[in-house]
Amino acid sequence: MTGLKGKKVGIAADRSADSISNLVVNMGGIPAVYPIQGTKRLNEDTCKQNVGDYLKETFDWVILTTGIGARTLADNAETHGFHDSLINKLSGEPLAIRGSKTLDWLKENGLSPSVIADDGTMNNLFERLIMVDKDVKGRVFLQAYNQDDAYLKQFLEKRGYSVYLSRPYVFEAPVPDVLQELKEEITSSKMDAVIFTSKTQVLNLFSNAAEHGGLVEAFNTDVLAVAVGKVTAKELESQGIDNVLQPKRQKMGAMVVTLDRYFNPQA
């Protein structure tokens, strides 16, 4: 396959940027890394408070939205000597989760979810939760972070739940110069494609309403938007991008292979 030969591919990821770049290079492409995920900052004091409140209070559901969040709460509990108590209590309560990394964390700790999002999205998770929990609208421990947390809390409250919001970490804004350079590369159509590996990267790119139209126009004409999975793809589509490429298997390698095939459909 030589579909990527000579193609310039922007990479908005941070942690996985090196591995994606190597895959692009191996297929003849030219990677350009613009990490716009933003720095993850752990809220140690918040974690301690959240774990303590969870252990003391009564909840009807525990909703875990990210593997990072679940792991961060557990690590903090370990630091303060409450890890076993946390896992023991979680083992006896209904868990609603989204994401493969969250599921991996549950399995590591011998836990099983009562409800899991089929497609990895929060909308699907909530749909399934409401189907299972038709009549009982009790108290929910909601682990989220500083994107959509207010929306998620409000969504549940409007449906009769009482919500305890846990935000064990936040993502700070990306480096402004890096973000602006990527925007300029896109709007001037100097790239053939841009790879996104998280919803956060998409939200950061489209954070300035004044630049929104130009970015969408570029993606809908000259630059291909590429997503690693359904959640990221859905966010790109919600911004107004008509053609979003994503692999059938939500893996980095599969994504780059799918991109290579896109540019060489006869391979």
Strand and helix layout:
Elements: E1 8-11, H1 17-26, E2 30-33, E3 40-42, H2 44-56, E4 61-64, H3 67-79, H4 83-91, E5 95-97, H5 100-108, E6 115-116, H6 122-132, E7 139-143, H7 149-158, E8 162-166, E9 169-171, H8 176-187, E10 193-196, H9 199-205, H10 209-221, E11 224-227, H11 230-238, E12 244-245, H12 252-263
Parallel strand pairs: 1-2, 1-10, 4-5, 4-7, 5-6, 7-8, 10-11, 11-12
Antiparallel strand pairs: 3-9
InterPro entries: 4pyrrol_syn_uPrphyn_synt_sf (IPR036108), 4pyrrol_synth_uPrphyn_synth (IPR003754), UROS/Hem4 (IPR039793)
GO molecular function: uroporphyrinogen-III synthase activity
Organism: Halobacillus litoralis
CATH architecture of the largest domain: 3-Layer(aba) Sandwich
**Mean of all residue-level pLDDT scores:** 92
- Determine the number of helices (DSSP H or I, runs of at least 4 residues): 12
Q: Care to count the β-strands?
A: 12
Description:
This protein has 267 residues and is α/β, with parallel strands linked by helices. The protein has two domains: 122 residues, Rossmann fold; 132 residues, Rossmann fold, CATH 3.40.50. The chain contains twelve helices and twelve strands. The strands form three sheets. It has a five-stranded parallel β-sheet, with helices on both faces. A five-stranded parallel β-sheet has the order 6-5-4-7-8, with helices on both faces. Strands 3-9 form a two-stranded antiparallel ribbon. The longest helix is centred in the first third of the chain and has 13 residues. The mean pLDDT is 92. InterPro entries: 4pyrrol_syn_uPrphyn_synt_sf, 4pyrrol_synth_uPrphyn_synth, UROS/Hem4. This is Uroporphyrinogen-III synthase. One of its GO terms (molecular function) is uroporphyrinogen-III synthase activity. It comes from Halobacillus litoralis. Pfam families: HEM4.
